[in-house]
Each structure stands twice: as structure tokens, then as C-alpha cells.
Amino acid sequence: MPTVTPERLKEAIGAVLTGVGASVDEAPLVAESLVRAEMRGTDTHGLPYLKLLVERVEAKMVAVPTRVTVVKDEGTTALLDGGNGIGQVAGWKAMETSLRKAREFGTGLTLIRNTNNLGFFAFYTLHAAQQGYVGIAMGNANAAISPWGGAEAFFGTNPISIAVPGGDDSLALDMSSSVVARGKIRRAHRQGEKIPVGWGLDESGMPTDDPGAALKGTLLPIGGPKGYGLAFMVDVLAGMLSGAAFGRDVQSFHQLMGPTGVGALLLAINVERFMPLGQFRALMTGYVESIRGSRKAKGTARIYLPGEIEAEKEQTSRARGIELQAASIEMVNQLLEKLKSAVRL
Amino acid sequence: MPTVTPERLKEAIGAVLTGVGASVDEAPLVAESLVRAEMRGTDTHGLPYLKLLVERVEAKMVAVPTRVTVVKDEGTTALLDGGNGIGQVAGWKAMETSLRKAREFGTGLTLIRNTNNLGFFAFYTLHAAQQGYVGIAMGNANAAISPWGGAEAFFGTNPISIAVPGGDDSLALDMSSSVVARGKIRRAHRQGEKIPVGWGLDESGMPTDDPGAALKGTLLPIGGPKGYGLAFMVDVLAGMLSGAAFGRDVQSFHQLMGPTGVGALLLAINVERFMPLGQFRALMTGYVESIRGSRKAKGTARIYLPGEIEAEKEQTSRARGIELQAASIEMVNQLLEKLKSAVRL
């Protein structure tokens, strides 16, 4: 597969973004999020996101340059309006706000309303961890999961990410509330394969192994009623409490049906309020060694820490270049050409 | 089944607790937690807990009366030492501390070290919700879940509870990080039944339908690596960051092997920092109606909200009395007799 360096990909994505009207301040940040998603193997948040974003900007459903405004800012809490702009710009500003507050007050909690798909959420929580803070982020999304016992999509796959300092500051849980992402079911459908029972329900709310039926139905939440409860609470905290859209009112980023109305929550906790950061990092070093060294299941060669697979892929991509499908390179180059940019991948 | 009123059960439990040395201040609070657990159908946190607690107090492995001390208290954050006392006393004081801080600063975050089993976690988060705050609580526990790919218990079932105001202030997610509690596997084992594959792993880390093999092995986390990540992060935030025990060092409340060393995290968020509480409650009313009214799966008569089944059981028990097994009543009466209390159930 062809490879490109992270720098070249970032430059090309940045040129696409400024080409459609993003500011020179925001383009590198958004490009960084997309490039890292590609490097980490979570590529739905990478180049496919870029294509969707450009379509939405051209359809005037995302406003660029992104104008994030402060609705409220009092002591430990803040509320931002994302200006229906690019999600990463609002998300980054929110985590920066929370970190500033956590530095001063111990914790910082910032909510965002009126934004769009924020890309991969460990982008924000790892930023907190790398500065010695616990980072917690969650956001809502368009309906994909039904209430437990239901047959109709109501909650998004509502991601939750938690990152903590320690190790090489790459420890991050970054999970959706569903067993699998819809993309996995779409892929099985394209390839004419069955899906395991437990991934999705058909339109009548019954378990199915037919990806076509699951795509018309809903995604199953992790742990049944537990994942339903998580998706519910993320929707309430990130969506309702922020004044964003929630429940079925959140629109899909994948369909040109108007502003998505997404909301998010970004929390930072100052480790130093509880123990010296050096002590915490030392405890974490011993902890991850114990986990790595614990007895493995038959056939398992290695135990990974939360976020470790993604962090290693990122390192490998940084060292050897990012593998991209020829079609993805072509897609970026076509966008650049259309936008009359001199840059090419 | 025989029934008792909540008041009588609370009085009897309170008499047992003061009989073994709990203070007259703490006994009613702890009794309230145990009685509500019985009423809510989460009875492992009720009378079986009482029996274990009394054994631990008599073995001098839990210190009563509970002396909770403030290790740190600065602005929005606090750290308490539970004095190896009764978990509910530390947990309640921690949530009260977080609520006081959230009233003043918008958020309050209190960690606890050196405590014991806190009973059911919605006890604390519902208290926050009833006062118009978002309540979030989590705690660690003795090893039951292995790292993903492992065959050795390392993390506890590490519960997470989130409650929000609205409806009748009874909306609470209260979940463990495992697919089922160990108690469910113990019951199948006693009754000579198989368990579904997906509940537990045997000693070699392989899926099993044999409850005996699963009891020697580990519990499966919800959503595979996702639940592993949740259990990991709860252990780090509630255990490591608080200075409590964590990982395999947390001892079981069920075995007399010394202090459990449990840690917990209690967070309160002031809704009013983001929108008027009345507006939030109104949005929540519409939200729960939409969920209840959404299309049901074939064969489902009703959609429940997070915590609604437990809240209804609690209401029913309050109205009609709490159903107790004759053996449970006998157990409480024997404790009362042994402690020379005049109270009987």
C-alpha cells in the first residue's frame, strides 16, 4: 500500500480545509486530529471524515471559519457554543478551558452545544494526560441505539474517553456505547457476510445475523441495559445539559439534513490535588507492568493496555509513514485539484 | 413470603449495628442504605451485607465507630480517609462534601481511601439528583475481572453510578463493569445449572458454560475490551488516585483477610451552572416520555428508564412491606439475640 508521511498528509488536509474556508489557525488542529486518526487505525475519523466535512461545508451545513463563543464562564465551569463549526475546534478549546480551570481550581468542566462530530475523543483526553491531568470526554451523536426493549434508534453511539497520565502518557479508554460501530456492519453488508448475533437488532427489535437487516434496525449497546444506561447518561450530560440537541433530534454527520446539533462534555482533573504527579506516574508504571505480566489466556501472546494498540500504530505510522489506500489518496488529490490548491499528496 | 415494614427493618439493622459498636449517628445511615437495597431488589447490598459487616467488625477488620478524616480539602476537591470503617459513612460524607462544593463552585470532587464496601452506589448519586445535582460515583473492589486477553482476576467489578435530576428524581444508572455479578454464577452453581457463554472464563481464560469453572476463573467485562477499559479507569481514579489499594491488592469483603482498602470517587455537578434547574427538569420530562413512547421490540410490553425497575420495587416495598426470606429474618434475630438487644424483627 502507498505510504505518506504524517507531515505531508497534514499539509494536504490543511490545504483542503483552508480551501473550503477554514481559517489558517484552525486548519492545522483539525488536520492533526484527522492525521492521528489515520495513524491510529481509527480511520473513519480520518479521511472519510474529511470528505463528509467538505460536503457539509459546501452545503453550508457547517459554518467555517469556526466561531466558538463563550456562553458562560464561572470559576470551575464553562459553556461554549460551537457556532455549528468544526467539532475539533470547539472540542480543543473546551479541553483547554477545562485544563486552565483544573490548574487553578482542581477540576474544570466545560460543555459544548451547537457543534459537529468531534472526531476521535482520545484526541482531547490524551492532551490532558500529557499535561499531567486526568481527561474525560463524552459526546452525543445521531440515533443508532434503541432504549433497552425498544426497536427504534434513539441514542447515538455516544463515545466516552478517559485518559490518565503515566506510562508514556498514551493510556486512553476510547469507546462507544455500542458493541460495534455501524461501519463494521456496513462492511459485512458490502462483502456479503453474516454478522455475529449480538451486534444489532432488526427493525422489529429482534437479534439478527443479517447485516442488511441490522442496518435498517439498531445497534446493540454493550452489556444490554448497561450500555443503554451509559448512552442515556452521555446524551443527557453532553446534549441536554449543554443546551445541544439530544435524543432523536441529533442529526447524522453522514447525511446532509441540516446542522447536527451535537453536544460534548470535557472534564479535566488535576492529579496534584490528590498526590504528587511523580508519585502517580510511578504507581502507574508498576500497575501497567503488573497487568502486562499477569497470566494470559490460552492462545494470547500479549496483553494490551487501554489505547495501547492505537498508540503503537501511531508510532509505527510516524516512523514508517501512513499506509493509505490509493483511492483515499486520489480522493484527497481530487479535492485539492477542485479547490485549485497547488498541494498534492 | 413474610413482609416487614421499612421502619422495622431499619430499626432492627440499626440495633445490630450499634450492638457491634457503630455510633448512634452512623447506624441509621448505614441501615437506610441496607434497607433500600432490600427494597430495590439489589439484596446482596442488603441483609447479606449486614452479616458480612458484623463478621468483619467482630474480627476487628472494620473499625467502628467509623472515623472519617479529611486528608485534603481545597476549593473544589477533597480527599477523605475512611478510617477502615463502614463504607456508607465515608461515601455519604464524600457526596455531602462534593454537593457543598458544587453548590459554591459548580462542581465538587471528593475521593476516599481506606474504606470498605460502600453498598449500592445509586444511594449516593440519587441523593445528589434529589437535590438538583448530577451525581457520579464509582469505586473499586477485589479482583474478579482479568485484563482483556488475560486469565487471572485483576480488577474488581468496579461499579459506576450516574444519576440526574428529573422525572421523579429516581433516574440512575448503577452498573458494574462485568456482564453479571458473581452472585448470579454462584446461584447457577448451587442449582446445578449451566450459565450462558459470555458470563465468565475458566482458569485458562477460555469461555465456559460451567458455573464451577467460571467461579475458579474470572468474570467477563461488558463489551470485552471496553468493560476492561472501564474497570481499569475506575480502579485508577477511585483506587490509585485516592491513595487507596488498587489492582490485586484490594481485598474481598467476603473473606476475612484483612482491611479491604477500597477507594471511591464521588462527583457532583451543579445543573444551575448550565441551565435553570426547572428548565432541565422540563426537558427531562419530555425526554423520558419520548423514550417510554418509542417503538417497542416484538414481545416487549414496556420500556424502562435507567433505575426505574429498582425505584418501582422500592415504592412497592414501601407501600406493601419488604418481602424477606424466613431465613433472613432468622439471621437478623439471631444477631440481635446474640448482641442482647431487645429489638426483634
Descriptive key words:
homodimer, alpha+beta, two-stranded antiparallel sheet
Explain what this protein looks like in three dimensions.
The structure is a homodimer of 345-residue chains. The first copy, chain A, has 345 residues and is an alpha+beta fold. Chain A is 41% helix and 15% strand. Chain A has helices at residues 6-19, 26-40, 47-58, 87-105, 122-130, 182-190, 211-216, 225-240, 277-293, 308-320, 326-338; strands at residues 3-4, 69-74, 77-81, 107-115, 133-139, 160-163, 172-175, 200-201, 218-219, 262-270, 322-323. In chain A, the strands form three sheets. A seven-stranded mixed beta sheet of chain A has the order 2-3-4-10-5-6-7, sandwiched between helices. Chain A has a two-stranded antiparallel sheet with strand order 1-11. Chain A is globular, with a radius of gyration of 20 Å.
Spatial ordering of strands, largest sheet of chain A:
2-3-4-10-5-6-7
Q: SS-based structural class of chain A?
A: alpha+beta
Based on CA inertia axes, which overall geometry of chain A fits? Answer: globular
Using only C-alpha atoms, the radius of gyration of chain A works out to 20 Å
Which band does the percent of strand residues of chain A land in? 15-25%
SS element count, helices of chain A = 11
What is the helix content of chain A? 40-55%
* Assembly state: homodimer
